[in-house]
Design goal:
The structure is a single chain. With 427 residues, this protein is an alpha+beta fold. It folds into two domains: 14-170 and 230-318, Bira Bifunctional Protein, Domain 2 (BirA Bifunctional Protein, domain 2, 2-Layer Sandwich); 331-420, Rossmann fold. It has helices spanning 14-33, 47-54, 59-62, 83-92, 139-156, 171-185, 194-202, 213-218, 231-246, 291-294, 309-318, 341-353, 367-376, 387-392, 410-416; strands at 37-38, 44-46, 67-69, 75-78, 104-113, 125-134, 162-167, 252-253, 265-275, 278-287, 302-308, 329-336, 358-360, 379-386, 394-399, 405-409. Strands 1-5-6-11-10-9-7-8 form an eight-stranded mixed beta sheet. Strands 13-12-14-15-16 form a five-stranded mixed beta sheet, with helices on both faces. A three-stranded antiparallel beta sheet has the order 2-4-3. Helix 12 (341-353) links the parallel strand 12 (329-336) and strand 13. The mean pLDDT is 95. The protein binds adenosine-5'-triphosphate (ATP) and magnesium ion (MG). Adenosine-5'-triphosphate binds at residues 81, 114, 116, 121-123, 126, 128, 260, 281-284, 306-308, 310-311.
Length: 427
């Protein structure tokens, strides 16, 4: 047995988790502004919840599922994505009931699992932040969701991110296009990759999604789905575009983008950026008006997106974006000798109870080493506590940046540290 993490997983250490916490907290604050509420579903689901909705012929289901039989012989899978579980929960908890506000807006964040070949930005356990919105078939909802993602990236400071947009139309339009694509690709079958030859039989739209060179060449002159949208679908897509325009959100129409999952219709989109010369999709989503009824709920439109947190952080790092993370400590207590041990413990606890972050020395180290720790922790104030301070009850607090000092009593520190701040030159 290897005592190492499984392939395709990551340990997030404190220097990483501060960034993760910031990004997650920032996402929560954006979602709040758009009136989204959090939903938490299990990490594992019945296999069929995923296989039937995501699609039996998709890569996710055919190759990437982390599935197993549990001790009760139930076919279980770790969740590979968030939409199917949220729709399952929406129906199971009858959130379609009239007394629940419509549209119903949910967000989630957490781990997803796919058995993939690990590489940069591709893991076996990865994490997504996603949203789902049920009950509106107004194109303004599609635009709101894209605008929200855009807003999130923009306020985080990410540069060079492009919104790619396409429409799959309603089921009739999609079926008409499917046939046109089969007619186009069948004579080219021999030029396609093995995977795409299979896709041509099972799910021809997915050939457009292929990353293989030969497939990309073959689909270069493929018919465009936009020529197969019926009146209703074309009008819907028009509505989405004009409202994106009115918000000043730029996008490119990408007719070869069809998304890897089976459940989409009408609007689909991806936010793509470039890392080291390669395109990287950070966020992807679309409309899925048939999915709630597929789970035996009433006919209910839905739309959502998922974004990969690892990829987002990769881009933040590559673009050298400084996140406003506060890693400072309010107070560091330097402890002079064993006789101050108990007093230091009382003092540090009293500070923490006043809401301050505080640390002390536990190792009876030389003062120089303790002051170095204070710097490493980013301590704003330093207090040096020894036997004589305990005896007299008088002590000095020092501003670690400006070196300003105040002499005060131990009682003041224990009861009202904030009263010292003006004299310490706090901003
Ligand atoms: P790709 O084409 O890159 O495989 P996908 O179409 O499988 O992506 P989605 O199912 O749309 O991806 O997932 C949404 C987002 O989740 C992706 O845009 C990406 O940011 C992230 N993601 C998907 N799979 C992985 C993975 N294995 N590791 C890390 N992030 C991932
Ligand atoms: Mg994938």
């Amino acid at each position: 047995m290897k005592l190492q993490k499984p392939k395709g997983t990551q340990d997030l250490l404190p220097q990483d988790t501060v960034k993760w916490q910031y990004v997650e907290g920032f996402a929560r604050s954006i979602f709040k502004r758009y009136n989204y509420a959090e939903i938490r579903t299990p990490i594992f689901e019945h296999y069929e919840v995923i296989s039937r909705s995501v699609g039996d012929t998709t890569d996710i289901v055919t190759k990437e599922m982390y599935d197993f039989y549990d001790k009760g012989d139930r076919h279980i899978t770790l969740r590979p994505e968030g939409t199917a579980p949220v729709v399952r929960s929406y129906v199971e908890n009858k959130l379609f009931a009239p007394e629940v506000q419509k549209p119903s807006k949910f967000y989630y964040m957490g781990p997803m699992f796919r058995y993939e070949r690990p590489q940069a930005g591709r893991l076996r356990q990865f994490h997504q932040i996603g949203v789902e919105c049920f009950g509106s078939n107004n194109p303004a909802t599609d635009v709101e969701i894209m605008a929200m993602a855009y807003h999130f990236f923009e306020e985080l400071g990410i540069q060079n991110i492009t919104l790619h947009l396409n429409s799959l139309g309603n089921p009739e339009s999609r079926a008409a296009y499917r046939q046109a694509l089969i007619d186009y690709l069948t004579p080219l079958k021999d030029q396609l990759s093995k995977d795409s030859q299979r896709r041509l039989e099972e799910n021809p739209l997915r050939v457009l999604d292929s990353k293989e060179k030969e497939d990309k060449a073959a689909v270069e002159n493929a018919p465009s789905i936009l020529d197969y949208l019926d009146k209703e679908s074309a009008a819907y897509f028009e509505g989405v575009q004009s409202m994106l325009d009115s918000l000043g959100i730029t996008y490119v129409i990408d007719t070869n983008m069809v998304r890897g999952l089976d459940y989409y219709n009408h609007t689909i989109f991806e936010f793509i950026t470039e890392v080291g010369g390669n395109d990287l999709t950070i966020c992807a989503g679309g409309r899925y008006d048939g999915l709630v009824s597929y789970f035996d709920g009433p006919e209910t439109p839905g739309i959502g997106f998922g974004m990969g947190i690892e990829r987002l952080i990769l881009v933040l790092d590559k673009q050298e974006i400084e996140l406003p993370i506060d890693q400072s400590l309010d107070v560091y207590i330097a402890v002079l000798g064993q006789e101050a041990n108990g007093g230091a413990l009382e003092l540090v606890q009293a500070l923490r109870k006043q809401g301050l972050s505080a640390e002390r020395d536990y190792l009876d180290r030389k003062l120089k080493a303790q002051f170095k720790s204070a710097d490493v922790f980013g301590a704003k104030y330093i207090i040096t506590l020894g036997g004589s301070e305990l005896e007299s009850g008088q002590i000095t607090v020092k501003n670690n940046q400006t070196r300003q000092e105040v002499k005060t009593s131990l009682d003041t520190i224990k009861n009202d540290f904030a009263s010292l701040l003006p004299e310490l030159g706090a901003e």
